[in-house]
Design a protein that fits this description.
Helix 4 packs antiparallel against helix 5 and helix 7 runs parallel beside helix 8. Helix 8 links the parallel strand 18 and strand 19. It is built from 9 helices and 19 strands. By secondary structure, the protein is an alpha/beta fold. It has 4 domains: about 45 residues; about 110 residues, Immunoglobulin-like; about 200 residues, von Willebrand factor, type A domain (Rossmann fold, 3-Layer(aba) Sandwich); about 30 residues, no CATH class. It has a 6-stranded mixed sheet, sandwiched between helices. Helices cover about 25% and strands about 25% of the residues. Keywords: Membrane, Transmembrane, Transmembrane helix. It holds the Pfam family DUF58. This is Conserved repeat domain-containing protein. InterPro entries: DUF58 (IPR002881).
């Protein structure tokens, strides 16, 4: 805690008047005027000494309710001030610093606190967008009884809270082959009739030749290997396109509060869609993997909703236009799990990578939501956006199920058309 003492406007005026009286008294030879001036100058300094030597000690405590909210909701902040000394305090002014991006601070004025008295004040933050936020520290100003001196005591404690992305309830639509978000096993797990009825896959260089399944190889005309050693499990991998060049904001920009952020920024729509699909998969017992940062290629795994939403609350567009650092991870996810990609602006290299990742003979579903980012405003940096219809056609020809998402389309509608019946793009909704 830091402490700073300063004169009020009243004290400054009294000091100026006292000094003027002293000078005039000296010039005019008026002793009484000099004495009056000295007294006027002495009063503010006496008040400062009194405040400095006083044993009034103030403590503060902050509480948040709740510590986690969904985007578009507010947090209530409770500030408790306690006078730890037996002496009463003067009037108090509290100022609590609001999270970065919000204008101003929260201010309160309290009457004097009696000895050992505690008092609580509360305020609500504005409805906030997705992210991690911090409130505090709080500062307290105390006055002496004559309002000559104020003491500012700045505390250092802060409080953090989380605004997680909006998670929409998705319809219970199932994609082709019904193993996307259902209770069925993954595409490479042990067969439904037991370990002897093993699933197979194409032979890859380095595979153990003793595991070649000759009957399947003869049937398809190429080498196939058994996978009975792999445990039965259901997986869904989400691919979130977080490249800054793949998304754009509306012409009005985006602030920390206000309208639905998914209508202001295509990346916010992508994050919310990713969270919604992943949570639906978790409810159906799926293991979740997430690929979301080409600058740090890593497959993140989540088993609980809170872990996932905490991570996505802090997701930000990354300053890169490259997708290839994720190539090996995307190929692995396409082989071993259902792959759901939420894509912004795509380029030929990215489309080629995704098409090749699907490959031939893959039984795992691969689904893609392609966001028509032009609906959110001008293309980032003035570069023209690639036609999402063309990108969707390329992916469909490679075995993906792809849908184009227009501006203001809900996640639930997009998912229903993607996982259910629709290979045609979504219509714009006003």
């Amino acid at each position: 805690m830091r402490r700073r003492i300063g004169f009020t406007t009243r004290a400054s005026c009294l000091l100026a008047a006292g000094l003027t009286a002293v000078l005039c008294g000296l010039v005019l030879g008026e002793t009484d005027l000099v004495r009056a001036g000295v007294l006027a100058v002495a009063v503010p300094f006496a008040a400062a000494v009194f405040v400095h030597r006083s044993r009034v000690r103030v403590a503060s405590r902050r509480g948040l309710e709740p510590h986690r909210v969904t985007a578009g909701q507010a947090v209530t902040v409770h500030l408790t001030l306690t006078n730890r000394s037996p002496l009463p305090s003067g009037a108090l002014m509290l100022e609590d610093r609001l999270p970065q991006g919000l204008p101003g601070n929260a201010r309160f004025v309290l009457d004097s606190l009696a000895g050992h008295e505690s008092r609580t004040v509360s305020y609500r933050t504005p409805d906030l967008h997705r992210g991690r936020y911090r409130v505090g520290p709080v500062s307290v100003r105390l006055n002496d009884p004559f309002h000559m001196v104020d003491v500012t005591r700045s505390f250092t404690a802060t409080s953090d809270f989380l605004v997680q992305p909006v998670v929409d309830q998705l319809p219970a639509a199932q994609p082709p082959r019904s193993d996307d978000l259902g209770d069925g096993g993954g595409s490479h797990s042990i067969g439904a009739h037991g370990a002897d009825d093993a699933s197979t896959r194409e032979y890859r260089i380095g595979d153990d030749l003793r595991k070649i399944h000759w009957r399947s190889s003869a049937r398809v005309g190429s080498l196939m290997v058994r996978q009975e050693e792999r445990p039965w499990r259901s997986q869904t991998t989400l691919l979130l396109d977080s490249r800054a060049t793949s998304h754009t904001r509306s012409r009005g920009g985006a602030s920390a509060t206000g309208d639905d952020p998914r209508l202001l920024d295509s990346f916010e729509w992508a994050v919310s869609a990713t969270a919604s699909i992943a949570v639906q998969a978790m409810r159906r017992g799926r293991e979740i993997g997430l690929l979301d940062d080409p600058t740090r290629p890593e497959l993140l795994r989540f088993t609980e909703r809170e872990q996932l939403t905490t991570h996505l609350a802090g997701s930000r567009p990354v300053p890169t236009d490259r997708f290839d650092p994720l190539a090996d991870l995307v190929r692995g996810a396409a082989r071993e799990s259902t792959l759901v990609a939420v894509l912004g602006r795509t380029d030929p290299a990215t489309l080629r990578l995704l098409a090749e990742a699907r490959g031939r003979g893959r039984s795992s579903p691969a689904l893609a939501l392609l966001i028509d980012v032009d609906g959110w405003g001008d293309a980032a940096g003035g570069r023209p956006a690639d036609d999402p219809e063309i990108a969707a056609t390329v992916l469909r020809n490679a075995g993906w199920r792809a849908t184009v998402v227009r501006y203001a389309t809900s996640t639930a509608t997009a998912w229903q058309l993607l996982a259910g019946a629709g290979s045609s793009p979504l219509a714009a909704r006003s």
